[in-house]
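Rather than argue in generalities, we reproduce a single protein record, letters for residues, whole numbers for local backbone shapes, just as it appears below:
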Amino acid sequence: MPQALPTWLTPQQFFQAVEEMRAVVGKEWVVSEDGPALRSYRDAFSPEDDDVFLPSAAVAPDGVEQIQKILKIANDYRVPLWTISSGKNFAYGGPAPRKAGHVVLDLKRMNRILEVNEEFGYALVEPGVTYFQLYEYIQKKGYKLWIDCAAPGWGSVLGNTLEHGVGYTPYGDHYMMHCGMEVVLADGTLLRTGQGSLPGTQCWQLFQYGFGPVLDGIFTQSNFGIVTKMGIWLMPEPPGYMPFMITYEREEDLHAITEAVRPLKVNMLIPNGAFTVGLLWEASIKTTRAQYGDPKKPLPESAMKKIMADHKLGMWNFYAALYGPKPMMDNTFKVVRDALGAIPGAKFYFDEDRKGDPSWDYRVKLMRGIPNMTEFNMSNWVPGAGAHVDFSPISPTRGDDAMRQYQMIKTRANEHGFDYIGEFAVGWRDMHHVFSLTFDRSDADERRRARELFNVLIDEAAQAGYGEYRTHLAFMDKIAGTYNWNDGALWKLHHRLKDALDPNGILAPGKMGIWPQHMREENV
């Protein structure tokens, strides 16, 4: 018996819909019985109980035609679908849907790399293609191209881009580097965006725009359609690569670091994502809290100092890289060194200085587009079932904003019994502040405190003018509610689009706080 079906759907209708989907994809590609296979779709890091986000079935199509047939069935019975690419998230929730009674539409079988073009530097991929898969394909072919990957390399290239994910090379803004989508709408209509709407196009992956309104963005972080193909630009392999790290000893150095980084980024002297990483983020990659203090309490200042000494780390650890011919990198590095080295206590490190250091090694790989899974070590920081969920407010790249966010989040985290584990990522003019709220999932009290902390942070960040760019299922409605300028005009438009494109509300109802009309009063 499926759990908590929508009020308009009887068990008999649900089972009939699932049987019809099984006839479309084959019985081995549908899971509808409660058990390990279905529960593998839950979020392993959720701050909620296991059964809060759990599907009632899952179906895995192998192409556009099967998706269109499944959509017809879903519309006939009004069965809600929750679309995932590979389902391999790390910090913002797993493949679980917003509510029970949903069928996960799992696109993992659509994992074909349709094209990699070395001349122009792009790839055309399906949703199930992972960073590992694309990297290994390029290496096997011998193409002189780099990908830009998220920290966990098992994730979907397409999925991360649609969620506004970021990376570590000069191509780190993944949505900015996408070019051309193929989308199936809720009624089964198939369309292509940009130049892809021109029959016989020669430029689908070369030019992001077509003729008329640019629609690509409405299919990111939304439930307006199912993206089945996407182009992504790849970085030509540069003639040189110079990664470096700078450690800083004092908490208050964050202000000076941020002020120094801003002109370097705006003027593109540092071309890639520049990360100012907190001490415990670095430490959690290679050690545990229990090695330095009470495993159930935030670490005291004395433990912080010992970690710094043991691992040659600072309270803040800045990572960036330069790319290009060596003379050009050497000249640019003089400017970078003068700016960031002027802060008292700054210590520079290069590859020869940190051999065998896992936190250095994985950053060096990421900044040259080599996917890996090292960041999963963070889950070992706390005892028990280590889990985390990220709180990620955006701010200007200013020292005052960095310090304000840091002090706010650290204070509230400590009050709720958690460490501050965070980093600041400067893309161009903006700054992503990623606070990794790490907790023991097996401890009900820690889950409760984690939820309480997250909700407090949403409110305080919004009051200070900082909005989150991405979040876990549990907090989507609350964060959507903070984007409420002019009486929530933006979300009212989102709902009008939802009603027009998906009148039966079958595609991921509630994703990013966007609900279909018949569920709106209940959830918004």
Remarks:
- The mean pLDDT is 95.
- The radius of gyration is 23 Å.
- The chain has 15 helices and 19 strands.
